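Predict structure. Chain length: 274.
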Amino acid sequence: MSLSDAELGPPPARASGGGRAIDEGIVPLSRRGAIGLETSSFTGGDGEVSGLSVALFARMPFAPHTFLDVRLPFGLAMAERTDAVLGNVTLGAHHVARVGRTFWLTVGGDVGLATLSGKTHDHASYEPVSASRAYWDLHEYFPSILPIHARLGAEAHVGSLMIGRFQLEPVLYIPLGRNKEYEVAIQHAVELQIGHGIGGGVRVQGMALPTFDNVSIRHAVARNLYVLAIEPFLAIERNLAFLRTGLLLPFDEELGPPLDHTWGFHFTAGVHVD
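Prediction complete.
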């Protein structure tokens, strides 16, 4: 249960220049409602394979501190030919609870619409797309599944400059069509950012894939039980809009080492709607 405004006391003072302090009110800027675009791209070390993922997303205010979530993922895989795919569209919701003066918890989840089918797409059309994010949100580009995705997140502001974030997100892959295997993925990440309105930091993300030693759908991630990646990033968070860009460096036997075999760019931008 989140604390009441009376228990929390008065909100922090406004930032200089008339802007909002990043932790003013109940929801910090990074957790507010938004409409935006997220892209990730990578090129293999041999230059023969590359992938691009593009996701349109919305976090629309529904009730106090509660948001409806929509993601429409698209992808391009470029090797001997160029293939375009529509990933698994997801619908869900999340709630942001303020549990301390500078600490927030996020709880939510979503369900995929199984719009990517293994019958109509070859493995070469979706594998490079999911690799562009070091397999984060792999369920968006994994065919013939109904994904059920739970999300737990935390954000803490330490002093006037430092922000820490944490994510823990298990995903259940329910098989459809020719797919016969249930799979479980547990994605998790920590971030440290210095600076509020304009800042930079580092993100460390992991994909635990404990059941992927037995996958009935052909995919490059099969038998790869853990994928680690580091992303140094720069971020701008303003009242009306936000932007973030980072360099994704996988430390994985298949994708890594960084800058040698696989590397990618991650870019997110959008506008706030609440």
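Summary: The CA atoms of residues 109 and 150 lie 4 Å apart.
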